[in-house]
Specification:
The complex is a heterodimer of chains A (about 350) and B (about 550). The N and C termini of chain A lie close together (about 5 Å). Chain A has 13 helices and no strands. Chain B has 17 helices and 19 strands. In chain B, the strands form four sheets. In chain B, strands 1, 8, 9, 10, 11, 12, 13, 14, 15, 16 and 17 form an eleven-stranded mixed sheet that branches. In chain B, strands 4-5-7-6 form a four-stranded antiparallel sheet, with helices on one face. A two-stranded antiparallel sheet of chain B has the order 2-3. The chains are: A mainly alpha (about 350), B alpha+beta (about 550). Chain B: Keywords: Signal.
Chain lengths: ~350, ~550
């Protein structure tokens, strides 16, 4: 049951996490070497270069005490004024929005692949525990969990390239100006524009990186379902259902599986955050936009408004996903109160 | 049961996608393939070129941008003149003729019927507005390349197509108006578009950075995502299409930000990229064997090794000379730059005004040892700061380290992001012992004056003089030469040469090499004419001179 207490608690947690991200990131950037004013001033030259850097420090408030800088930054963040990217000179909100949409597109497709496949293979593994198929699935899931995804991504991209399959970027250059961008999601926008050819191109380009990102959640889902379902299959209500002569698939999918949905949904919430990190490397290898690749590009230039904005949005995303997991838990199991 | 349907649906979707993709592949295979690679994309009626650039775009305000934005600005905006430093000749752009009225006054006559991308026409007022904005922003905020207009007293409108530059002191103004930065002309209507109150209103900058433009160049900005890609579309009303006579010029130019060399190579191989700028140099020969072509462009981008003149032992001139004698200069080009550089001399790159031959230190370990013995310096440790991610700097640093090891000098190589390198360099003025003994600074010019390269050792330039070098004689020489440029150019160059000799004798800073920029391209897809590249414009391809051949 979804209670008011839960909503208040979750909002408070979200607020605390965002504040924590803002303050901690700001302190870390403050302590790290390099002066963000150099980036903001755009590498000034000539007799006024020194003055330009001082003015930039003044504009950014870098000459104020740390606690005042943090206060100003947190205050501006919550009032919706996230400022401009020091490197790209564009509003943070604009940069984050387009990269967030690109990342979400990738992550949603990844989880759309990972969850059903993970559940399906997890069930098979549980049902045939100890058999060859279970051992193979166990080995594969171990490999998927332990192998570095960036390495698999490189190998995969080289393999696809050698087959002549074009997977570079989010959309074919020929199509870049062929659609009107409404949502920023190329999948949705191509459909809105009624361009099936572009829709297919975009899907073909998103599936390989999605498969890489999907490896970890798929493997973890297989493992969790294998373990949890095996336990469920030994519970009394399942044994009773078997004794009533109910079909095996019905017992597994309608009764036993329902019992482990809360655990699976919690797992997806946690792995989603981890997958954002995976997505960062995969985005770079496949030359896709996204939160991860934007962070990678912002860090070397001390673009702290962008770094903080991106991390805060990632934090908020993480909270939203976990809240959805909680809600799924409540819906699937009425005994649960959150 | 519901789960079963979901799984079934997903499987069906995947099958449909696979079939659709196979159909697309088949369609492409039926068309004659002339490229060394196959492209699975459906052919488009529009001619498209994809250019992979190695760095994110730092801005597109034509009066402020002073970094990577040049790649876009040079195709979207135009200056009054272009300058070809190799041929030492000017080429008319927005101005068709110019003449010197007296030492401090020049008249420029503008090209007629030049349209800006907003449909309005080029006027004298537009020229005045654009240049004064660059100058004013620099004077007010110190940002941008507007310092090139310090010489300017005012610009007077003679008539709709003629303007008069009134100078504070004589300068070679045709060189300044052909600057790679800060000399672009645009429509003053942007005041209205940006809802700005005056020419230095911050709203104008934000308007530009949102991806808008009011240039007159052959391409206009269609999509601007500085961290990932920029798309330009051909401007059909550009005045120069008849002159260029290129019916195969690209209609769409996609500038993709691809930082990883491996990704650029992959993109090139699968046909997603047509021109690459940052492929691992070791792989270039393999690509050439596969049918790709290369253009090696001489650039004015060089790498300057600077010594800390305020910290022991690099504060000793003879010690610095010993270090330079210990560098195996004959290996620098082949090992550090893998052949993609030219042997440097002094501080100024080859082909650039003020270049002097034979300002080089020979490789002579014996001489280096003798100097060190005389100085009684041994078993010392030096810190060398380089920019991380610059393959050339990393290789040179390792070469220097192994060479100096022979002399009992240990070199600690510190690779840092550029912003931190800069901070380390500037530290020489605040606390010299915090600054490294040696640091590498890569440099490229704003407009072709030797002063641009030599000013980084001027005692007044505490932002870029990372040596902490203070030599009044040197300062006076380059200041005098700069003032003479507009009166007696030959004499000015002579004094600049003398200043370089002073630096050379002091061994305070030296160019490691003049880099050569390789552009790798698919010849079955594009043809790059000679005019498409100009060493004054780093990484710029003038796409009106590119032909899309398939």
């Amino acid at each position: 049951m979804l209670t008011l207490n839960y909503i208040i608690r979750r909002l408070a947690t979200a607020f605390a996490i965002v504040i924590g991200i803002l303050v901690l990131t700001y302190i870390l950037i403050y302590l790290s070497p390099g002066n963000p004013a150099y980036t903001w001033a755009g590498r000034p030259r000539g007799p006024k270069a020194e003055e330009a850097i001082k003015m930039a420090e003044n504009e950014l408030g870098l000459n104020k005490p740390l606690y005042i800088q943090i206060y100003i930054h947190v205050n501006r963040f919550f009032s919706g004024d996230w400022g401009l990217s020091l490197r790209f000179k564009q509003p943070i909100i604009v940069v984050i929005t387009r990269n967030l949409i690109a990342s979400l597109e990738l992550l949603i497709i990844s989880f759309s692949i990972a969850v059903p496949i993970g559940i399906f293979l997890g069930v098979i593994s549980a049902l045939y525990r100890g058999y060859l198929i279970d051992k193979i699935l166990y080995l594969i899931s171990s490999l998927f969990i332990s192998f570095p995804r960036f390495w698999i991504a490189i190998i995969f991209s080289v393999l696809l390239q050698s087959l002549g399959i074009n997977i570079f970027g989010r959309i074919a250059p020929d199509y870049t100006l062929s659609i009107n961008y409404v949502t920023g999601s190329y999948i949705i926008d191509s459909l809105i524009n009624g361009r099936i050819d572009i829709f297919i191109d975009v899907l073909i380009r998103i599936i390989p990186p999605s498969l890489i990102v999907a490896l970890y959640p798929t493997a973890l889902t297989i493992r969790v379902i294998r373990f949890s379902l095996s336990e469920k299959l030994h519970e009394e209500y399942v044994k009773q259902a078997i004794s009533f002569g109910l079909p095996r698939n019905k017992i597994v999918y309608k009764y036993a599986l329902r019992g482990i949905i809360p655990a699976v949904s919690q797992l997806q919430g946690i792995t989603f955050a981890y997958s954002i990190i995976d997505a960062a490397t995969v985005e770079n290898i496949f030359n896709r936009e996204g939160i991860g690749s934007a962070i990678v590009k912002a860090i070397p230039y001390n673009d702290y408004p962008l770094i903080i904005g991106l991390l805060a949005v990632t934090g908020i995303l993480f909270i939203i996903i976990n809240t959805i997991s909680d809600i799924i838990q409540v819906v699937s199991d009425p005994r649960v109160r959150i | 049961m519901k789960l079963r349907y979901i799984v079934l649906t997903i499987v069906l979707i995947l099958i449909i996608l696979a079939i659709s993709y196979a159909a697309l592949q088949k369609k492409v295979e039926t068309t004659p393939i002339t490229s060394p690679t196959e492209t699975p994309l459906p052919t488009s009626k529009e001619r498209i070129v994809v250019y992979a650039y190695r760095d994110t775009i730092t801005g597109i305000d034509p009066s402020i941008e002073f970094d990577t934005g040049i790649v876009i600005l040079s195709n979207v905006y135009e200056p009054l003149l272009y300058y070809d430093p190799i041929k030492n000749e000017f080429k008319p752009a927005l101005a068709i003729s110019w003449n010197k009225v007296n030492e401090t006054a020049w008249i420029f006559n503008l090209r007629k019927n030049v349209k800006f991308h907003d449909g309005t026409y080029l006027t004298s007022e537009a020229v005045r507005f654009s240049i004064l904005r660059s100058k004013l922003i620099y004077e007010e905020k110190g940002i941008g390349p507007g310092w090139i207009w310090n010489c300017l007293e005012d610009i007077f409108i003679v008539n709709e197509t003629s303007i008069l530059f009134k100078l504070k002191y004589p300068v070679p103004i045709p060189l300044i108006v052909s600057s790679a930065y800060g000399a672009y002309i645009y429509s003053p209507n942007l005041l209205r578009y940006a809802n700005a109150s005056d020419m230095i209103d911050e709203k104008i900058r934000l308007w530009f950075e949102a991806g808008n433009d009011v240039g007159s160049g052959p391409y206009k900005i269609e999509l601007y995502k500085p961290e990932s890609e920029v798309v330009l579309r051909k401007f059909e009303d550009w005045w120069g299409w008849d002159i260029v006579n290129n019916s195969k010029a690209p209609e769409i130019v996609v500038i993709k930000i691809v930082e990883e060399p491996a990704s650029q190579e992959l993109g090139l191989l699968d046909g997603s990229i047509h021109i690459a700028t940052n492929v691992a140099k070791a792989n270039i020969n393999r690509l050439l064997n596969q049918g790709y072509k290369i253009i090696n462009q001489t650039t004015f981008h060089n790498y300057i090794l600077m010594f800390n003149a305020k910290r022991w032992p690099t504060n000793i001139t003879d010690f610095r000379k010993a270090v330079l004698y210990a560098v195996p200069w004959n290996k620098v080009i082949e090992f550090a730059f893998q052949g993609f550089a030219k042997e440097a001399s002094g501080l100024i790159p080859y082909g650039y005004p003020g270049y002097v031959e034979n300002l080089r230190y020979e490789y002579n370990v014996t001489k280096a040892k003798e100097i060190l013995e005389k100085l009684n310096i041994s078993n010392t440790k030096l810190e060398l700061v380089i920019t991380s991610g610059y393959e050339e700097e990393e290789r040179f640093a390792s070469l220097l380290k192994s060479s100096l090891n022979q002399l009992g000098i240990d070199v600690e190589i510190v690779a840092l992001p550029w912003e931190q390198v800069k901070e380390k360099g500037v530290a020489v003025w605040r606390n010299p012992d915090d600054a490294p003994h040696m640091i590498i600074n890569d440099w490229w010019p704003t407009y072709p004056t030797p002063y641009d390269y030599l000013y980084i050792l001027h005692s007044a330039d505490i932002e870029w003089n990372w040596s902490g070098y203070t030599n009044p004689e040197y300062d006076e020489l380059i200041d005098t030469a700069f003032q003479l440029e507009g009166i007696d150019y030959d004499k000015a160059i002579e004094i600049y040469n003398k200043a370089q000799k002073v630096v050379f004798d002091d061994a305070i800073a030296i160019s490691i090499a003049d880099s050569i920029q390789p552009y790798i391209y698919d010849p079955d897809r594009v043809l790059i004419r000679d005019e498409a590249l100009n060493p004054l414009y780093m990484f710029v391809i003038f796409f009106q001179y590119v032909e899309v051949v398939s």
